[in-house]
UniProtKB/TrEMBL annotation:
Membrane topology recorded in Swiss-Prot or TrEMBL: Multi-pass membrane protein
Major localization listed first in the record, in broad terms: membrane
InterPro entries cross-referenced by the UniProt entry: Bact_Polyamine_Transport (IPR051789), MetI-like (IPR000515), MetI-like_sf (IPR035906)
CDD domains: TM_PBP2 (cd06261)
UniProt protein name: ABC transporter permease
Boundaries of every ABC transmembrane type-1 domain copy: 69-256
Xref: SUPFAM superfamilies: MetI-like (SSF161098)
C-alpha cells in the first residue's frame, strides 16, 4: 500500500513543471530545427528534414556563424586557462591571513552582484579612454574574467579550506622543495576541483553575452552573433544553430565529466595497488 503523503505528489508535480520550464524551450528549438525546406519558426511543422543543418555549413547571406564560433572557442580557452591559474594562486595565497585579505575577498564576491552590462560598459570605457583596442581578445577577455574568476576563486577557497596540510609536511620532510610539493602533491590532490574550475571558466565564457556586448569590438562572439541573427534571420536555420551549440555544450560537459571519472578510476586503482603492496 502506498503511504506516501500528499505533499510528495505536490512536490513531484512542482519539480516536473520546473523541468518543463527549464528544458522545454531547448527541446522546442531542437524540434523546430528539423523543419522541412518550407518550414517556419513556429508550429505546426512543415515536414521534417536536415535541410537547415545543411544550410549552416553553406555560405550564409547574413552573419559570420563559424567565425564567431571560433572566436568564442578561443576566448573560452583563454579565459579557462587564466581562471585556473589565478584561482589556484589565489587559493594558495588565502590559506594564510594577510593585510587586506578580508577586503579583497569581499571585492571578489562583489564582482558577482554588479550588473553585467555595467561591467561591460565600464571595461569598454576604460579601454577606450586608455587608447587600447576594444577587441574580443583584450577588453572582452578582461570583462569575462570579472565573471569567471570569482567562481573559480570561491571554489579554490573551499578546496583549500579543507585541504590537509599534513600531505605537504610529509613531502617537505622527504626533501621536496616548495614547487615540487605543489606540483607532485597539491595539484594531483585538487585535480578534480581544477576540472570543475575549468568547466566553469569555459562554459561561462562561451555563452556570456552581457559582459561581451560592449567589449567585443567589431567582431562578434557566438552569443552576440546569435542575438544579431534574431533580428534579420526568419528561417529555422537559427534553431539549427541553437541545437548544434547546445549539443556542443553538452559535449564539453561530457568530456570534463569523463576526465573526472578517468582520474577517479586511476586514483582508486593506485590506492588498491598500494594496499596490495602493503599486504
Amino acid at each position: 500500500m502506498d503511504r506516501r503523503p500528499r505533499s510528495f505528489y505536490v512536490l513531484a508535480a512542482f519539480f516536473g513543471l520546473f523541468l518543463v520550464f527549464l528544458y522545454g524551450p531547448t527541446f522546442t528549438i531542437a524540434i523546430l530545427s528539423f523543419q522541412g525546406p518550407q518550414g517556419g519558426l513556429t508550429f505546426p511543422m512543415r515536414g521534417t528534414s536536415l535541410h537547415w543543418f545543411r544550410e549552416l555549413f553553406e555560405q550564409q547571406a547574413v552573419g559570420d556563424i563559424w567565425g564567431s564560433f571560433r572566436r568564442s572557442l578561443v576566448l573560452g580557452l583563454m579565459v579557462m586557462v587564466t581562471t585556473i591559474v589565478v584561482s589556484v594562486m589565489g587559493g594558495l595565497a588565502f590559506r594564510k591571513r594577510f593585510a587586506g585579505s578580508g577586503v579583497l575577498f569581499y571585492l571578489i564576491v562583489t564582482a558577482l552582484v554588479i550588473p553585467s552590462i555595467l561591467v561591460s560598459l565600464g571595461v569598454g570605457l576604460i579601454f577606450g579612454q586608455a587608447g587600447l583596442p576594444v577587441h574580443w581578445s583584450t577588453s572582452g577577455f578582461g570583462a569575462q574574467l570579472t565573471w569567471t574568476l570569482p567562481f573559480g576563486l570561491l571554489i579554490m577557497f573551499a578546496v583549500f579550506n579543507r585541504f590537509d596540510p599534513a600531505y605537504e609536511e610529509a613531502a617537505r620532510d622527504l626533501g621536496a622543495s616548495g614547487w615540487q610539493t605543489i606540483r607532485h602533491v597539491v595539484l594531483p590532490i585538487i585535480a578534480p576541483s581544477l576540472i570543475g574550475v575549468a568547466l566553469f571558466g569555459f562554459t561561462l565564457s562561451y555563452d556570456e553575452f552581457a559582459r561581451t556586448l560592449l567589449t567585443a569590438g567589431s567582431y562578434n562572439t557566438l552569443p552576440l552573433e546569435i542575438f544579431g541573427m534574431t533580428t534579420n534571420v526568419t528561417t529555422p536555420v537559427i534553431f539549427a544553430l541553437g541545437t548544434l551549440t547546445t549539443v556542443f555544450s553538452f559535449l564539453v560537459i561530457g568530456i570534463f565529466l569523463l576526465i573526472v571519472w578517468t582520474m577517479g578510476r586511476r586514483r582508486a586503482r593506485a590506492g588498491s595497488d598500494a594496499g596490495k603492496g602493503m599486504v
